[in-house]
Structure formats: C-alpha cells, structure tokens
Amino acid sequence: MTDVQNRWTTRRREKNRRMTGLALRSGSKIVDASGIDDVLSTLIQPGDRVSLEGDNQKQADFLAQALADADPERLHDLHLLISSVSLPAHLDVFERGIATRLDLAFAGPQSLRLAQLVEDKVVTIGAIHTYVELYARMFVDLPPTVALLCAEAADEHGNLYTGPNTEDTPTIAEATAFHDGIVIVQVNRIMSELPRVDIPGDWVDVVVVSPRPYKLEPLFTRDPAKIGRVEILKAMLAIRGVYERHEVVSLNHGIGFDTAAIELILPTFGEELGLRGRIARNWVLNPHPTLIPAIESGWVESVHCFGGEPGMERYVAARPDVFFTGPDGSLRSNRVLAQLAGQYAIDMFIGSSLQIDGEGNSSTVTAGRLAGFGGAPNMGNDPHGRRHSSAAWLDLASGSGASRRGRKLVVQLVETFKAGGTPTFVDRLDAVDVGTDAGMPLPPVMIYGDDVSHIVTEEGVAYLYRANSLDERREAIAAVAGATPIGLRHDPRVTERLRRDGLVAFPEDLGVDVRRADRSLLAAKSVGDLVAWSGGLYDPPVRFRNF
Amino acid sequence: MTDVQNRWTTRRREKNRRMTGLALRSGSKIVDASGIDDVLSTLIQPGDRVSLEGDNQKQADFLAQALADADPERLHDLHLLISSVSLPAHLDVFERGIATRLDLAFAGPQSLRLAQLVEDKVVTIGAIHTYVELYARMFVDLPPTVALLCAEAADEHGNLYTGPNTEDTPTIAEATAFHDGIVIVQVNRIMSELPRVDIPGDWVDVVVVSPRPYKLEPLFTRDPAKIGRVEILKAMLAIRGVYERHEVVSLNHGIGFDTAAIELILPTFGEELGLRGRIARNWVLNPHPTLIPAIESGWVESVHCFGGEPGMERYVAARPDVFFTGPDGSLRSNRVLAQLAGQYAIDMFIGSSLQIDGEGNSSTVTAGRLAGFGGAPNMGNDPHGRRHSSAAWLDLASGSGASRRGRKLVVQLVETFKAGGTPTFVDRLDAVDVGTDAGMPLPPVMIYGDDVSHIVTEEGVAYLYRANSLDERREAIAAVAGATPIGLRHDPRVTERLRRDGLVAFPEDLGVDVRRADRSLLAAKSVGDLVAWSGGLYDPPVRFRNF
Question: Which InterPro entries has this protein been placed in (chains A, B) (predicted)?
C-alpha cells in the first residue's frame, strides 16, 4: 500500500489489525461467553468511542457487565455512547476508570447516581440528547469505533434476528459497520436457520452467546386497576375537545395512566359518540396492552412501534393486519423509523409531564437527577418547516399568504396537582435550577411552550394554538390550572372572554357530563380484563399478574 | 384457520394467494425479464397502493416501464407512491389509466406535464411531501401493498446489494416487507456471492434481472468552469460572515454553484484565514465532486451521504476514513439516516432558492409546474423542539429562563438577480398563485422566513436571527436585496442602524476585499482540475468531460 492510500484508510487498517489479533475460528464469528474478556481487551483500545446498547427497553447487559469487569490498566479513557443509562454496570464502567466521557439520551433509573458522578468529576458529559439525536450524531461527529449490541439470535455467519425488540440495533450497527468500526453482539442463542434476518451478517464482526437472555423492561404496561375518575374525566375531555374536534386520525400516545385511560374509553365513550373509524386510526406507539380493547373493537387500522413490550409477543403476532410483523410472524420495531413517523406523518402527540410553567414549558426533570427525555422532545414538537397537509394539521392553520401553514397537535395532558398535593403548574420549572447547578448550557426543558397546541386538565381544555400573544397563552393556561398558584392568580373575569374566543373550553362547553366520569367507562378494568380481551394471547409479566 | 384468525390476517393471506399464483421456481426468487408482465399482473391487483421507486437519483426504470406497458383492463385504479416523479413512464402509467392517484415528493423534470395531467383530472394528487414525509407515511397510513424497487445485484436468495446508491431502498423495503406487502426488485445482475448485503433476502419476494442497468443521474456535479466572480464573492462573505463567525463545524450544502464555490475556496481563502480544522469538518451531503479539493487538503473529517454520485465511486471507495463505506469498500448511503442527521445533528443548512419574499419565505416553484422540494424543507428548518447544544447552535441562542434555546443555522445564499435580470427578491412568491391555481391547501413554500437565520447575497449578510420583529426582519432582508424592487424601496438611512445593531454586514464589515473575488481563488477551475485533485480516481460522466 502506498502512503497516499494509507493516509485515508487508518480506520480500516486499525480494525483489521485488531480483528487479526482476535484470531476467530475460521469461517465463524461466534465466540463463547468465557472468551468475552479477550474479545473486549483485543478489540477495544484506550480512548475509543464505544456505543454500548442501552435502548429504551432492551439492554446489552452481558456486554455492559463484561466491560465494567475489564482491567482498567488495559482499558481506560473510553468515550461511551449510551442512549438509555439504565443499568448499574453503565456507571460502574466510569467508577472503575474504564470510561470517562459519556454522551447519552436518558438516565431514568440511574439519574441520581449519574448526577453525583458528574459532580465528583468521574463522568464528563458530552451532551444530553434525544434518542434520535444521539443516533444521528453517530453518522456525523460521533461514529463509534466499537459497538456493543444485543439481539435475540444469530446464525454462524453473524446474521441477526432481533425478534420484536428491534429498537435501535440496526441503526447503531449501520453507523458502526459502515465506517470501519467493530460490531460485537450478544445474543440469547445461536440458530442454524434464523426465523428472519433483521441485520445482515456482514455488518457484524463478533457474536457472543450470553449466559442469560438480555434484560427487557415492560415500560409500556399500565394496570387499568389504577385508573381513577380524574384520569377518565381528562380522557373524556381530550376525546371531545381534541380528538373529535380536530378529527385526529394519526397519533402517538406517551406513556402514562392518562393516555391509557383514553385508550380504554375509546370502545365505550368513543363508540357512543360514533367516532370509530373517524379518529385514532393510525398509531405510532409501542404495543400498549391498554390498546387491546380498542384494537379488538375495530378502532385501530395500524400500529408502528419504536420497540416491543414484554407479554405482547403472541398478541401482536396474531394481529398482523394491525402491527408491522416479519415473515416469521413477530413484530419488527424500529425506533428511528417510528420517530420519523412521529415527526412527519402523524396529526398529534399527546403525553404527560411532571411540571408545566406559566408559559407552557414543561419538563420531567426534578432536583438532583440528571435524567433526559428519550424520545418525547422529538414527538412533542411541531416540525415547523413545510409539511404535507392533513385535515387535523390544517385545522390549526394560521398566518396568511406564503406564511400560512398548519400545525401538528402537541397536547399536554395533566392533572393540576400530582399525588401528595404538589402542583403541576409552577412559576418556575425545577429544570431551570437543575440546569444551572449541573452547568448545562440551557435548562433541560422537555417540551417548549410555543410548541404546545393544547393543555388538557381535569378543569378543561386550553386551546393555546389560538392565542395571539404570549399573554393570551398565559391566560389560557391559568384558566385550566385549577387551584395551583398559577390558577389562583388568574382573574376569573377573563375566563368568559377566553371561552367566548375559543381559547378555553370547560366540560359543559364540550358536552362532557362530569358525573359519568367513573370506572364503568373503562373497557378493561384490570390486567385480567386485558388478557380476556386478547383471547388469552396477552401474557402479562409476573409483576402485573395481580388480578 | 378460525374466523378470528382470518379477521386479522387479510394482508398476509392475500399476499400468499398472489405469490402462490406466480409459481416461482422452487428455492429461487429470480424471474427472467421476459416474465415481468406475468409478475406484475399476478402480484398487483386493481386498487393496490404501489410504491414505485423513483428516488432523488436512482430509478426502477425497467419496472416503471413494465407497469406503464401493462394491460389497463387488467390493472387499473392503482395508487402510486413515487418520491421523485422523473421518468416519462411515471406519468404514462396515469395516461394509460393504470393508476389514478399519486402521492409524491418531487417532480422536477415531469413537473409541467404533471400539472397538465392534474388539470385534466387524469392524476389525483394525495399530497406533495418531502422525501422523508412520504417514507414516514408508509409506516402510518400509506403502507404499500406492493413495492417496485431497484438494486445493483442480488443473489439467488434475494439478498440485495445496492452499491453506493443505497438511497431509499432499505426504507421502502422495510415498510412493505414488514406489513405483508410484496417486494419486487429489478437488479442489474445476479451474483453467486454479493460484495455485501444491504437488504436481507427474506425481505424480498421477487427479483427480476433488468435488461439494462437502472438509470442514475449526476445531479450533484457542478462544473467549476461555470463559477464566476459573484458566486466567489458570496462564498467569501458566507465563510467570513457565517462559517467563521459562528464556528460552523457540521453542515449540509444544498445543490448549486453557490455552495460549490464555497467548497472550492475552502482550501484557498479558508486556508489563509487559518480555518482548517475549525470549521466545516463534518458533512452531510452527497459526494459532491467539488468537495474533492477540500477533502484532499485535509478539511473534511467525515461525509455521510443521502445517495451517491456517478463518477465518484472509485474516489469515495479510496477515502474510507471520510466516507461511510461497506466491507466491500464502496459507499453505503441512506437518505432517511442522512436526513435524520441533517435534522438533528448538524449546525447548519445552506442552500439557494429561486425566489425569496420580503419576509424571507422562499420557493423554487414557478408558474405552471407542480414540482415539490425533495429534501430541502427538512434540512432548511430549525427542528424547534429541545436539542443538544453545539457551539454554533448556542451562538444563536435567544429567550430567557426555561424558554432560552439555541437555533440551527438555516442560510439562504442567493444573487439579488438571476440570469436574464429576473429579481430573486419579490413581493409575492409565484408559489402563492401556483398553489391557488392547483387547488393546493397551502402555497408550496419551500423554506419559511421564520426558519431562515441568515441571507447571504453579493451585497452582504443579513442576520435575520437577530431581528426582534417581523418589521426588523423585513428591513434586514431589504438591506441586502440590492436593486430589486424590495431593495430599492429600502430606506438607506435605516441601513446604518442595522449595521450598528449587527443585523446586516457588508463586505467591508466582514474584512472581505471585493477585488479579490475572482476565479484565481478556486482550488479547481475545471472538471479536469477535480480529476487531477482526485489523483485520477474521479471519473466524470461524459457530459462533463469538456475540459
């Protein structure tokens, strides 16, 4: 090779050098679990940028633990890219001095410990991203040297079968494999013939059989038994005041009991209103068990998923007209494509938040935690550039001439007070101080007020997209903020003007009878009811088998 | 099968029924070109939604022609999804009555004829999308029944090799294959072993060997010989006034001579300023030949591509440290992932437009044409929701408290007049009337004024992101609009205030010596120079071999 060629092939030559050092059995990419230490210490070098797969749901936990157990004399100063920091091992790697720098998207269960490690200067954070931002940067300025991924099964050639939780594996594999990075995958088992191929074998360098199946959390399961009158009232207001009014056909639901309540009253309250087939037909969301009654009642035309949900495998496989499934019959999810759909192809995002300020900015960040938001900020914003039209999008149109355009519905669905009497509506988000304390360049706001089109509380619906000024937006928010400080300062005389101008609607304005808001409206009242609706196809995880 | 099972498997059973009707040779997915008529008439049914691959660059032209040649008695009322309507056959299908409904993203070469067919009610348009919107809807409300795709090569099992122009094939294949649609692919050749697998064989139902290689246009090649003083002056202003000022590290360049000029003066003008390594390191764009000198001079750390570019294959393959390439050595592009990167992972989009109005709205649509914009609207907007920070993004920050946030740079680079003396700055975009005449719900604006952060003309730079009101934005635009009607109405006395407040900068404010703006600054002055810079690796298409 000439010097000129060498100059432009440093990544490829380095990869070849490391792979040669590993000396795989000829013709096979499979390594026994006992050899993992040798694999990591041969294929990873100090200073490497390593993408460790910790998705929203599935975790490359065996590889994470192996990395945490590595010899820090040999492996140090790694730069880790982890979308969801959710295992103790993810931070053990830092405490042991193996890694020093972290780019992440979300750190739910580890957010307290992460905050401490940042304060102690054990972890240096590059940035807190959304999921797709982090993946996008893997194709720009953060291409991984090594990716540590997980899949359900592999064959001898390294072809991968992900099963229902495809999630982010194809995207990280593509960023790494096509820039001369090294792709190492833990699998639950080796099969001579895979049910289907999710990722081609020539994108994969090494396959390790994990001694135990990868970890997977049932993040999207909500027990209908915990849904009360207030959630049901909000669900009724949302359906009449938002879904029906704007004819919302395609949508994403966030996680939570509020949206679960909506899913569960579509077949009852929604049916009474004659809305089946008119609203909520095309969904972008994970396989929520609480959506089963609506699916079985013929409400749902399609569901595309970011990931899977434990227990929903057999049900999803039996409903291929609705879910995206493969030739093997099981779900194919894909976070990047679902986010793309959520950004560009749906009418509405609706979700909850812990705090909302007077201008409508919201955040789930609270003191002492370095959390992040996963995918919500990408779903919860109006894409803002030119977009194709849909009826709902056009219904929110504003401006004139060339500037006229529609708007994606971004709906916040909250109770004015949370459990324990803590107000949801606050003068100042905790996120502002958290950001300052943690030295963040900007406060960790999840969804900005100017992106929010509606706020639904148990008091009513605020149509923020109709506000002509920031002051009007503040007034409309305060009018549905109940007895919180923000609500109490609101001048009730303004309310009538807001109602008249269509900025605020109360239950009576929407034809919602508050007395009907009780559990009898729920199409399923327990996890057991969901199992029954599914014809026995839904297998709830053990912790939900309380019916 | 029980009735319950049947109710939820209509798509799968229908696919199986059609595939059984085709009777492929056992164990093979390959069909001879002569059998294409049988394939299409067996696998497609009247009323189907068919995704016909017409990407920005590559075209499934053999399949498009075969569809246009089908018997309208047998095949009719199809709903076509075509991202780029660019072949006569794409519209012949409608004229022959085989298809009636069209969802598209772009119709450059066929835009006049398309407008006529819509007027004649031969074509009914669903919506005009951006590329990724159309793909996103394939996972929501427009899943294809059948996809007609193209690839470089296939093996007996239907595994596909796309070569450098991966583009959109994996995305459309995923949307179709994983919702029980039928995937039919034309390939240039069959190989017993593929150089790499881009799409797994079990996503593919039928492979047809095309009698000729698929069509591919060199859309991103600009001849440096056609770059003049004005383009060079604008390039100097952009580099000093935007790239250097905001330290733009990651970026996308639109197509055109303006951005080509920037690419070509980085190694000369940019080098003098000591900017190498400080700006323009990470790129999201197709393999522009005019970027070769900057790459060879060590400016470019990485390039991720939407598609490929004819003639750039050997050069790209020889620069794997820079480009994303596969184990076979050749480029792997991917439009959806490059768009994702352009949306979420870069500091800046810079591109040109045909018309800009006084508020900064811009469009490339002109009278009588139903064009569309491909990917520009997605690159040319500020994603608007929460985003991770970069230095450039933060440099444009505004707001306070929870509302404070940065901004993606969206730069319009135009000459005040186009060839023939037509003004670029206009009181009213042609797009407004085109939209009305064509019965569009909104005018076909490409980039909205409130998303544009800067406008660069030969007069200077307007820093629109600093405008505190729509009036100030109008003034700043007018100040760089030269002798166009909008520029002439501008009160020159306002200009001094705008300069003082940093809303406008002229060449002298930016330290740009206008006299130096000549072709001697171009690192390459001809296509021949580009070939020389590439060390003979760049093979320009015939039409550019004029040096």
Answer: MadA (IPR005777), NagB/RpiA_transferase-like (IPR037171)
State the CB neighbour count (10 A cutoff) for residue A34.
9
Count of CB atoms situated within 10 Å of the CB of B419:
6
Q: Using only the alpha carbons of chain A, give its radius of gyration.
A: 25
- Look at the block and give the residue holding tokens 């522009």: B288
Q: Which residues in chain B are contacts of A429 at CB distance < 8 A?
A: 402
Beta bridge partners of B303: B283, B323
pLDDT in the model for residue A417? 97
**Residue A344 is nearest to which of B136, B250, B405, comparing CB atoms?**
B136
The confidence score (pLDDT) of residue B372 equals 80
Cβ atoms of A451 and A410 within 8 Å: the answer is: yes
**Strand pairing report for A504-505 and A461-463:** antiparallel
- CB spacing of B402 vs A200 below 8 angstroms: no
Contact B472, B481 (CB under 8 A): no
What the block records as the tokens of A110 is 């580890």
Architecture of domain B224-531: 3-Layer(aba) Sandwich (3.40)
Minimum CA–CA partner of B193 in chain A? A202
Q: Which CATH topology does A16-216 take?
A: Glutaconate Coenzyme A-transferase (3.40.1080)
Which residues of B fall within a CB distance of 8 Å from A345? 133, 136-137, 139-141
Say which residue the tokens 């000729």 belong to.
Answer: B212
The CATH architecture annotation of domain B30-209 reads 3-Layer(aba) Sandwich (3.40)
Alpha carbon distance B539, B529 (integer Å): 12
Residues of chain A positioned with their CB less than 8 A from the CB of B361: 402-403
Domain extents in chain A: 16-216, 224-397+404-530
Tell whether A121 is within 8 A of chain B (Cβ): no
The closest CB to that of A344, out of B132, B332, B373, belongs to B132
Q: What was the pLDDT predicted at A147?
A: 98
Residues A386, B49: Cα–Cα separation, whole Å: 25
Residue written as tokens 């692919």? Answer: B185
- Chain A residues near residue B353 by CB distance under 8 angstroms: none
| Structure-token pair, residue A545 | 């088998």
Contacts of A541 (CB under 8 A, 6+ apart): A218, A221, A310, A311
Q: Measured between CA atoms, how close is A261 to chain B, in angstroms?
A: 23
Tokens in use for A348? Answer: 């509405």
Percent pLDDT > 70 in chain B is 100
Nearest CA in chain B to A134: B345
Name the region of A111 (left: φ>0; alpha: ψ -120 to 50; beta: rest): alpha
- Residue A546 clears pLDDT 70, i.e. is over it: yes
Q: How large a percentage of chain A has pLDDT more than 90?
A: 89
- CB contact (8 A) between residue B382 and residue A382: no
| Confidence check: pLDDT of B248 > 80 | yes
State whether residue B81 is helix, strand or coil: strand
Distance CA A282, CA A345 (A): 10
DSSP state of A331: B
Instruction: Find, among B452, B436, B455, the residue nearest to B376 by Cα.
Output: B452
Q: Residue B16 has what pLDDT?
A: 96
Report the pLDDT value the prediction gives residue A3, as an integer from 0 to 100. 76
Please write the tens of the pLDDT for every residue from A469-517.
999 999 999 999 999 999 999 999 999 999 999 999 999 999 999 999 9
> Which residues from chain B sit within 8 angstroms of residue A202, using beta carbons?
196-197, 326-327
ipTM over 0.85: yes
Amino acid in the structure at residue B370? L
Query: Which residue type occupies A36?
Result: I
Interface list for A 122-141 with B (CB within 8 A):
127-130, 132-133, 135-137, 139-141
Q: With respect to CATH, is domain A224-397+404-530 assigned 3.40.1080.10?
A: yes
The answer to whether domain A16-216 and domain A224-397+404-530 are alike in fold is: yes
* Average pLDDT of span A285-298: 98
